[in-house]
Known about the structure:
This protein has one helix at 44-64, and strands at 6-12, 18-26, 29-33. The protein is α+β, with helices and mostly antiparallel strands and 65 residues long. The protein has one domain.
Amino acid sequence: MEPTKEWHVSCRDVAGRRRDMSVFINQGDIVLVAPPGETAVLSPLEVGRLRAVLRDAVVSAADLD
């Protein structure tokens, strides 16, 4: 079995505290985990990072097929 690839994107919660969102692959699906019980607030740069991470995850998931 191939090791699980996991990525992290910095964000803030609605109270302004630093948090992370996680992205990983589970059986060919892309899983996005937001801060528990929180709403993720992303700056434009963080949205760009999330976009890049999601693209990387899709490419990695496709490689598993």
